[in-house]
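DM from R.C. (forwarded with permission)

"hey, sorry to bug you on a friday — could you get me a structure for this? deadline for the figure draft is monday and I only need the backbone to look sensible"
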Amino acid sequence: MGETSSPQDVNFIRHFNTFLNFFLITPWIVFDNKFTWKPKLAKFYGTTLLLSRGLLIFYQSQDKLFVSFYRKGLLSQQIINILTLIVLETLVCSSIAKSAFFDNENWRLLFENFYLLEKHLHGVSEEKKPVQFYLSRFAKHLIFLTLAGYFTWIYSKIFRISILTAVITTPITYYYYEFLTFCLLSSLVEAFRNRYKFLNKKLLIVLSASELVQEANTFALDYQILSESVQIFNNIFSYKIILIILHYALTVINALDTFYAAVFVYKNKSVVLHLLVGTTCVLCYLLYIVLAIIVPIESTVQESKTFVDLCYKTELNFSPDLQQVRALEQLTRHAEQFAAKFSAGGHFDINKTIIFSFVGNVMSYFIIVMQLNGHELVP
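My reply, with the result:
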């Protein structure tokens, strides 16, 4: 289970996990040979973070500048800002609580499954070279920090405050916490997809060599481990995904509302220009985030279905060898039973159809927001 025996994507998640421990996005587990867990220290640190969050919320509620930030703009913007703050605070506090007190067993099982799969698959093929692999992740951070810095600067101009005060006042720190959660989520989904693809390639090789009888049990076990890993992923991230999607919906509505306010409310042309440019960047970035979550998940589910399809197609054109036919039939039934499915707490499946629901709901609420603004602007 050492680092040298692990594939590139799992090694990245291991090292990234060490960084995320500081924010308690993940439990304090050292993914070594013994999966070292430090429960007392984690619970103390988690309790400290939660108490500090409570004190910060109390302080901010008494701070005139902070209150004025959420009372700035149209009524619709004030409502959306408050709802966004509640969603983000819930995401942060629930993540800290789960990582400190509840999620350690799920994470331990998830990494045990990754290591077990690596032993069976003997090296998952990587599409990216190490430099490209890490540069792509660094680029995501750079883009986010650039956008965050730009928006912090805009709000410092609007409220005529320092950059540091803008960082403390605006929810930019929440956004970074959410962004780190997204990076972890997308890395795990990519790891699942890589293993399903590799399993499909290995199945094709075995089927062409007519060696399924010897390998059928191994394939069934690997496929089951992958499906169980996806279920563990659902247990860890289900409600986080719901909160992230809800936040993105609120942010898109707020961005569209900002377009409206920039045109009809704000008089400072310099501020209006920066708001329009910044809001456009946010919409483009949110589109990327939503697609970066949904597309890999959809691709992973399709790779899982491809395994079942390969079994069915081969079963229809198989040789009269009864042992091979029986092995293939058992593998097909097993694969159908353990097909991958991503869900958000069991409330709905996460797939490409969610994009259309997302757009429809956003537009419906935006129409309501415009009606609120229309009544507010009537003299």
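R.C.: lifesaver. The mean pLDDT is 78.
me: no worries. The radius of gyration is 24 Å.
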